Amino acid sequence: MSNPTLRERDGFNSQRPELRPDVKRMQEALTRHGYNTDTDGYFGSGTLQEVKKFQTQHQLGADGIVGPATWKALLADGSAANDGGASDNSKGSEPLTGDVLITREQLAEILSTSEYIDTYYQALNDALKKFQINTPLRIVHFIAQVAHESGSFRFVVENLNYSASALRSVFGKYFPDDATAEAYARQPEKIANRVYGSRMGNGDEASGDGWRFRGRGLIQLTGRDNYTAFQKSMGQDLTSGENSAKVAQPELAVAAAGWFWDMRNLNRYADADDILTITKRINGGTNGLDDRKKYLAKGKQAFGL
User: Fold this and answer.
1) At 137, is the pLDDT very low, low, confident or very high (cuts 50, 70, 90)?
2) pTM of model > 0.85
């Protein structure tokens, strides 16, 4: 497969729309390396910023143009250097067998609250088996990430109840001035439709897809494209009508997290005890890394690692 040189605005209708599949492939490679960009086939300003970050980190000319050298680096192994906190990963690498891969007692030792353990216990063990998160090291890394993302299983639907100032801070791209932010403040449905409209496979703001396919699950599944891919894996309709709401139910909330973990090949990095790369591939950055490390340390203690 050829790798054409890509520049900002490629993929848009006004500039080389025929390169949209190549732009999407480049964006997907960036996300595998832990960079935070949409994978919509449009080489916009957000993708340009991440390309320049990637080029800088890989000692390439940070011109934002994806030429042969940048393509070569992007298509190489996407693993990142470990953060130095890894343990001997030969310990904890043996697959566990049986129906119970993590016990209620181990979960109680890891999570900040035991309130929701019974709700997710069976679904969690089912997902660990289904997605081969089946060694102590894989399990503790998975639990560390989902515990952080969901507040120890308390939150399975994205909270978009932002104030005007928060909208300007978090979603400044979509709320460039105070007047716009004030018009949307404290209106979660309206906010979702604006910030998620016309991307991730969603229709435009008026379609309601942003709200319909907002984040759900222990690692929040977001966007029509992800819901569609996940429903194929599960063999059930999660995109028609209000079926997307089912992803907040315990079985699917856990399965969505397991599916995402599997799609991002995160077992590989758990086997290397590489929490930094796992966090980047889930978060797009390192937000909450210290909290994730705390959960991981508790998990290792619970499993005797």
Assistant:
1) very high
2) no
Q: Is the dihedral of CA 280, 281, 287, 288 positive or negative?
A: negative
String of DSSP letters for 54-78:
HHHHTTS--SS-B-HHHHHHHTS--
Fold designation for 17-74: Muramoyl-pentapeptide Carboxypeptidase; domain 1 (1.10.101)
Instruction: Return the CATH class of domain 90-158+215-305.
Output: mainly alpha
Summarised one tens digit per residue, pLDDT across range 163-184 is 999 999 999 999 999 999 999 9
How far CA 177 is from CA of 73, 183, 207, in Å, comes to: 38, 10, 24
183 C-beta neighbours (distance < 10 Å), count = 13
Tokens of residue 3, six digits = 């790798």
Nearest alpha-carbon partner for 145 in 225, 258, 34:
258
Residue extent(s) of CATH 1.10.101.10 domains in the chain = 17-74
